[in-house]
Amino acid sequence: MIGYVTLGTNDLAKAAPFYDALAAELGVPRMMDYDGFIAWGKADGGAGIGLTKPFDGNPASVGNGVMVALAAKDKEQVQRLYDIALAHGGTCEGPPGLRGEGFYAGYFRDLDGNKLNAFIMG
To answer: Rounded to whole angstroms, how far apart are CA atoms 85 and 109?
Structure first.
């Protein structure tokens, strides 16, 4: 069971509005907000997302093959999350659509290049 995922950023103030917008669509608030770290989630909910400058002080970089998947409630929310991501400076990695039997997803990257998707099963 995943408790949370943390992604690196080189500019927390610039990256936070991207995640605030996605979290608002998902109905998830900021649950932690400290100097250098923000997390979105619910204490009694599913996995959350954290965003931070790397602890070691080196620049944040993207992990090849690493992706965070955001569970949507329906195809319309997949589309909204994808649109929100692009409207907040994200880039397209594959527009929403069927990706095999029963899996519908849209793929995008955040401002630091981290790959995410919004998806539904079934």
So the answer is: 8
| Token pair 């993207």: residue | 62
| Entry pTM | 0.90
Strands 115-121 and 67-71: parallel
Q: Is residue 112 part of a domain?
A: yes
Question: What's the total number of domains in the chain?
Answer: 1
pLDDT band at 9, cuts 50/70/90? very high
**pLDDT higher than 90, residue 51:** yes
Q: Is-contact 110 85, C-beta < 8 A?
A: yes
Contact 84, 25 (CB under 8 A): yes
Instruction: Give φ, ψ of 63 to 5 degrees.
Output: -85, 125
Instruction: Specify the CATH number for the domain of residue 86.
Output: 3.10.180.10
pLDDT at residue 87 tops 90: yes
